[in-house]
Amino acid sequence: MPFLTRAEIFAHPLYPAIEKQIAQHLIAIHMRTPRMSRLKASHRKWLMTQSVFALALRRTPDDPLSGLTATRFVETVMRLGAASRNTATGYLAELVAYKFLRDVPEVPDKRVRVLEPTELSLNGLRSWFNGHLACLDRLDGGNREMTSLADERIFVIAQPIGADLMVGDPIWRDPPDTIGHFLWSDLGGIILHDMIARLDDVNRTAEAHSCGPVSLTDLSETYQVSTTNLKRMFKKAETENLLHWEQPRRRGDLMLSSRFVEDYFAWQSAKFAAVDLSYDKALAELGIKTSNAAAA
Length: 296
Description:
Layout: H1 6-11, H2 15-32, H3 43-57, H4 70-80, H5 85-97, E1 101-103, E2 115-117, H6 119-140, H7 144-150, H8 153-167, H9 170-173, H10 177-183, H11 188-197, E3 208-213, H12 216-223, H13 227-239, E4 243-247, E5 251-257, H14 258-286
Antiparallel strand pairs: 1-2, 3-5, 4-5
């Protein structure tokens, strides 16, 4: 079954529409389970979260000491350069404290603590995965989402593959500076999604795109982000002419520059391509054939 490449996804006429769709989907996950925001509060945490799940889901029954341990996680994070040893250790403890991870029972070596995702975090990431498949289906008329929902093994196999692709990809791992100051800030990613979700009928040849009226106070209340952090994020973007309000004192419609939106789209296309390739590889490993309309 052919998968969509990053270039094909980025150039597709419906790409702006699925960017709005996935932004709305991610916002909905956040609103249903706001605690899940801790898994992706910043891009650094999201990189670590993907690595956490990849290690955990690669655990095999014939090796009870395999899977997610603090040592393996820290080694992975250090190899990627995603965070310091202390940050990685602290983050793992945070996930346990918030009940996103739990101890695997009856590990034969009591000196080794093996962790696994709880239903809360597992269901959240599964929804994230299937939401992206639904968007890809919209591009080529495929049936990825339906196939994945019918067989949970697909997600279990695909997630570690996709995580490796994303965290190992410099384009995904190191987002462009235009959007980076949002992504590296706590909850800055959800603010980006909010802006993209407000766009309608994006004309990719236009110099700017309207989000409609946007209030930093409303964003703060909706997503529980401090106004100080929001002002810092937006001030940098305003200074670099990446976005602006039509009227003084941040009133009227918020306008996003073409450069800002296209850099976001390009960065996101790397994620969509990784998800699609991981799904394709999971089907191959399971020997599943589908009637995807994109198949030749």
